[in-house]
Amino acid sequence: MSRFKYPLVFVVSGVLTALVLALVVNIFERKAEGRERMTGIQQIGEFETDPAVWGVNFPNQWDRWKRTTEDTAVTKYGGSKPIDKIAENPRIKILYAGYPFSVEYNEERGHGWSVVDVQKIKRLGDKKPGTCLSCKSSDTVKMWNEMGAEKFFNTPMKDLVAHADNPISCLNCHDPKTMELTPRNPAFLAVMERRGVDLGKATRQQKRTYVCGQCHVEYYFEKKDNPILHFPWDKGLNLDDIEKFYDEKGFYDWIHPDTGAKLIKIQHPEFEFWSTGIHARSDVSCADCHMPYQRIGSRKYSDHWVRSPMLNVAAACQPCHRWPEQELSERVLAIQDRTKSLLNRIEIALVDAIAAIKACRESGIPDEKLAEAQKLHRRAQIRWDFVFSENSMGFHSPQESARWLAEGIDYARQAESLAKQLIVR
Predict the structure, then answer these.
(1) Percentage of the chain exceeding pLDDT 70
(2) CA-to-CA distance for 103 and 254, rounded, in angstroms?
(3) CA distance 155 to 131
(4) pLDDT band, very low/low/confident/very high, at 222 (cuts 50, 70, 90)
C-alpha cells in the first residue's frame, strides 16, 4: 500500500496546482474584462442619434433598452401601461378646467415610445412649439446643435417631428466618444449656470441623477410668442422656492374659468421632489433605483430597461435595504397609500372651493372682492399639482409631500370659507 502513497500524493498535488492556476488565470481574465469599458467595434459619430448604432458596441445595454417599449407593466400607482387618468379620476376635469389637461391626460409609457406617444397627444395640436419635443427624442440633441436652441424652441413641433426618428436614447445622456454621462438640455445647462453649479466638477454619482433631472422636472415658457424653455430653480428646488419664484414673476399658465384664479400647471417634478427626500441626502441617484446595476460575467452594467423599482425590487432596493422583497414593497405601498388618501382629501377640498368661488361670481360678486380667495385657490392648487403630477405617488419625498398636501387642504378650505362668507354678506 505504501508504494502507491507517494504517486497518489503527487497526482493529487498536481491536480490541485492545476486547479489553483486555472482559478488565478480566470481571476486575472475577469479583472481584465471588468476593466474593459468599450469594445470599439463600431465608430460612433459625435451626434449619432440611432441607438442601434451604439448597440453594436454595447449589446447588453441595447438589449435592455429595447425593453422600454414593453407597455404591459402595471404597478398600483403607475407603470408603463397607457391609462386614461381622467376616466380614473373625473375630478381632474374640474381642477384643470380651461386647460388642455382637462381634455386628455394619460399615463406615460416607456422611453422607447416617447416620439410615437407625443405625436398622439390630442391636447397638443398643431400650434405647439418645438419645446414640447425637447425631451422626447435623441434627435433633439442634434437639432439643438444644428439650429440653435432658440430657433428649435420657436419652430412648430409638427415641423420638427419629421426629423425625429429616434426616441429617448443614448445621445440624450452619453458623450459618444468617452461614454461619460453628459446632460444636453439647454434649459438645464442654463439654470445650473445661473445657480452657480459647475457641471464640470460633478461626480459620476451626481451625473447619474443630472441626466434624468434634465427632463423629469417642472418647467415653463417665458412668453407664449417666444416659448424658450426655462426651469424655475433660481431660488431653489423646493416647492416653496418655486412658488415664490413664480409669484415674484407674476407668472401663470392659465386662468381658471370658474374661479378666475391665475393657476400654474406643474409638469413632472421628479428631480425637484427627489432633491428634498432621504435618498438625495444619502447620495442615492435616480439610476441606482430605476437603472440598478446588474452583473453579466465579470462586468457590472446599469440596467437600461428604465422602469419602476417596484417591478425590480431585488435589484433596485435590496442592495441597500436588507429586508425581504415583500417587506420592502409593503413599505413603499404604505407611503403611496397615505399620499393617495391625502390627494383625495385635497381634491375634494379644491372642488368645494372652486364651487364656492364660482357661486360668488355667478351671484355678481366682482373679482376684486374675490382676490384673496383666488390667491388661496392658486396656493392650494400648486401644492396638489406638485404631488399629483410627480410620478412616485409621494415616495420620493414622503414627509414633504404630506406637508404640501396638508397645507393645500388648509388653503383650499380657507378659500371655500372666505367665498361662502362673501355670499352671506
Answers:
(1) 91
(2) 15
(3) 8
(4) confident
Rounded to an integer, what distance in angstroms lies between the CA atom of residue 353 and that of residue 276? Answer: 29
pTM over 0.85, yes/no: yes
Give 117's pLDDT tier (boundaries 50, 70, 90): very high
